[in-house]
Amino acid sequence: MSSSDRQPQTSAPGERPVAGAPAAARQNLLDLDREGLERFFVETLGEKRFRAHQVMKWIHHRHVTSFDDMTDLGKALRAKLEAHAEVRVPQVQFEKPSADGTHKWLLAMDGSNAIETVFIPDKGRGTLCVSSQVGCALNCQFCSTATQGFNRNLSVAEIIGQVWVAARHLGNVPHRERKLTNVVMMGMGEPLMNFDNVVAAMSVMRDDLGYGLANKRVTLSTAGMVPMIDRLGEESDVSLAVSLHAADDELRSSLVPLNRKYPVVELMAACERYARRRRGTSITFEYTLMKGVNDQPVHARQLARLMRAFGNAMQAKDAAKVNLIPFNPFPGTRFERSPETDIRAFQKLLLDAGVLTMVRRTRGDDIDAACGQLKGQVADRTRRQAEFRKRLAEQGGVDAAA
Ligand code: SF4
User: Start and end of every Radical SAM core domain (predicted)?
Assistant: First the structure.
């Protein structure tokens, strides 16, 4: 689906209605990538293509949403835009800075749903963790988002709007004072289940008229949607991360139910096909370490074998990179974080086997913004939230109706 075929977005609650066409009939320009915006200017407004470029810069470089403030556009064009278009950004419902510099936003998506976005500053880089869906349908057992159930996919505007909100907050200036250097599609949701909108939003992230990020600085993380990994390879050129968490099918299926559909051997074959298209770059395999579940030497050896086989197939020792993530607990979970000694021993075993392995430092856990802890506000359509709350109440955790 091309971006210009997408339906205009409806109004966010509490936003000032604009004069002219009803809000629902206006095209939200945040919903369009460069190609879609050019088409809108040429076909709908009867304007020159370069006008689309000017507006794109106003929106994404200068964070301007009012056409009146786009001062290099003529009065007539501004009036035309006012009548046919709008720039509708997500509303910040709540934001919270962490002691370690991490910053979390709760963004209202509509009357009943909200998602979380997290910025993580580090030495010389600033990474934004972006959500792709309201909740998630995949039900990975160790994930806080999964307990919330699922409501819907986010639109392009709602995905790129997260980058817009963070960039404005940070005073980010693409190509000059860039504080936002990386985006990871690792927030709420499985991005490959919202393929068209995620690919369009990632194209704005990488566009010079958008956020100007290099391909390798935009990473999509998947739980292993095999056919869509192939499609991503055909249509995009971003970095790929895979949530692996176990190298063996039985254990992985118990942690990531999607593995029953796409087992490890099929997943690794899809990773190989993806990596062949992007020679010279590595694929990151994420592995959340849970005490007594997947953190033992036997698991590390299985993982090392799998990673070495991948490296051999790619004829590159560094084709795979492993990110070890100490589990971040959340209320009601049955998992625990692995002890530090086990984490180090796991890493050493992999390093000794020649596998590039890093341990991800936990960031933002004082504001529940650490990896696997994101939890927005989901009008659950899967009944999973109710089941989880019931289980929690039975364990004496929280009120079942909370
Ligand atoms: S880990 Fe990712 S894919 Fe799995 S349930 Fe959580 S958000 Fe969904």
Answer: 122-366
